[in-house]
Amino acid sequence: MTVSLDGYIAGPGGDIGWSAPDEELFRFHTERVRALGAHLCGRRLYETMLYWETAHEDPALPGDQLEFARIWQALPKVVFSRTLDTVTGHARLARDGLAEELSALKREHDADLEIGGAALAGELMRLGLVDEYRAFISPVVLGGGTPFLPSLEQPIALRLVETRTFGSRVVYARYRRA
Predict the structure, then answer these.
(1) CA 8 to CA 79: how far, in whole Å?
(2) Of 20, 34, 114, 178, which has fewest CB within 10 angstroms of its CB?
């Protein structure tokens, strides 16, 4: 997820305008998503990403965004929501608990699974089911909003396995459980 320097994924009122990727970062995200086996997301992220389900219909869509749209559309997605009745595209609503759904997805897919949405990721962290953490740290201080990480009862020890700084000054940091 993209996170501000002070630890928020969205500013007050849910603003994410500060987190739009530049071309270099967008290409990095495209390659990263191309390698995924499936994506788990909460309702808010699912609704935000619905744009990509029909983006290919825009004749003015740049080629790199068209490529991302095609990759996103083909990617299996599992949506965790208590309020949605239906989902579209290559998505399905989760019917079982988080641990059960994640276990089934790991059996189905040989590639990485990605979790999107702070609330969903936080629940999986509390259950000890997150093996790797990837943060795209933006050079901005928001002063409040939606926290990147939840409150935890116990610390989670991590080891840094990769970093990269983009031209936009966004720093990518990838950690694994120690």
Answers:
(1) 22
(2) 178
Report the Cα–Cα distance between both ends of the chain, in Å, rounded.
20
C-alpha angle 1/79/9, rounded to 5°? Answer: 20
- Name the β-bridge partners of 172: 136, 164
User: What is the domain-level CATH number for residue 23?
Assistant: 3.40.430.10
CA atoms of 120 and 43, how far apart (whole Å): 9
What does the pLDDT profile of the chain (178 residues) look like in tens digits? Answer: 999 999 999 999 989 999 988 999 999 999 999 999 999 999 989 999 999 999 999 999 999 999 999 999 999 999 999 999 999 999 999 977 888 888 888 888 888 999 998 999 999 999 999 999 999 999 999 999 999 999 999 999 999 999 999 999 999 999 999 9
By residue range, what is the domain housing residue 68? 2-11+19-177
Question: How far apart (Å, rounded) are the C-alpha atoms in residues 144 and 13?
Answer: 10
- What the block records as the tokens of 115 is 């979790």
Q: How many domains does the chain have?
A: 1
Answer yes or no: are the C-beta atoms of 39 and 75 closer than 8 Å. Answer: yes
